[in-house]
């Protein structure tokens, strides 16, 4: 496969910017009381009332609401760890797949006006995954040298 001669710094810049976004979102929730207040429960109940996507509504009512304490931690630490992974370029392929999964869930749950943001994140995460962006000025480049057959880096 022929490689194109394109500058690599924009890929790293996009990766770090996305990382900053997710890290700040996760830390904002962590220090903003997301784990101690029923914030997520209120958000999810609002989504259920809208009833936008029937198959996902049953997931929200049958799985998320009864286990909202677990999902509080998944959202907060999922965003923060995704941010750290993106900033460092570490285990990027794995983390972007998990990020795509997280943003797909947000996309299915959120109201229409927030869908474009989640679609944009899904596209960017997919591009970062396909480009193995952690190998561009990231720690995955060092891991790839040490473990060349690894699928994670």
Secondary-structure map:
Elements: H1 9-31, H2 39-50, H3 54-64, H4 68-88, H5 92-109, H6 112-130, H7 139-146
Helix pairs in contact: 1-4, 2-3, 4-5, 5-6
Written description of the protein model:
- The chain has 153 residues and is an all-alpha fold.
- It is built from seven helices and no strands.
- It has helices at 9-31, 39-50, 54-64, 68-88, 92-109, 112-130, 139-146.
- Helix 1 (9-31) packs antiparallel against helix 4.
- The two termini are 20 Å apart.
- The model has no long low-confidence stretch (mean pLDDT 92).
Low-confidence stretches: none
**Major sheet characteristics:** none
Backbone shape: elongated
Number of alpha- plus pi-helical segments = 7
Number of strands: 0
CA radius of gyration is 17 Å
The share of residues in extended strands comes to under 5%
The residue fraction in helices comes out at: over 70%
Mean of the pLDDT scores?
92
> Could you spell the SSE succession in H and E letters?
HHHHHHH
**What class do helices, strands and sheet pairing give?**
mainly alpha
Alpha-carbon distance between the termini? 20 Å
């Amino acid at each position: 496969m022929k490689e194109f001669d394109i500058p690599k710094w924009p890929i790293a810049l996009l990766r770090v910017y996305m990382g900053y976004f997710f890290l700040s979102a996760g830390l904002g929730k962590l220090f903003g009381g997301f784990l101690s207040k029923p914030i997520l429960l209120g958000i999810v109940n609002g989504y259920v009332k809208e009833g936008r996507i029937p198959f996902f509504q049953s997931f929200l009512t049958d799985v998320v609401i009864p286990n909202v304490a677990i999902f509080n931690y998944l959202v907060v630490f999922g965003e923060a760890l995704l941010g750290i992974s993106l900033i460092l370029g570490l285990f990027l392929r794995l983390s972007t797949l998990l990020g795509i999964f997280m943003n797909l869930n947000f996309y299915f749950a959120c109201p229409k006006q927030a869908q474009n943001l989640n679609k944009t994140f899904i596209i960017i995460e997919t591009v970062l995954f396909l480009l193995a962006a952690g190998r561009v000025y990231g720690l995955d480049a060092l891991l790839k040298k040490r473990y060349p057959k690894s699928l994670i880096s």
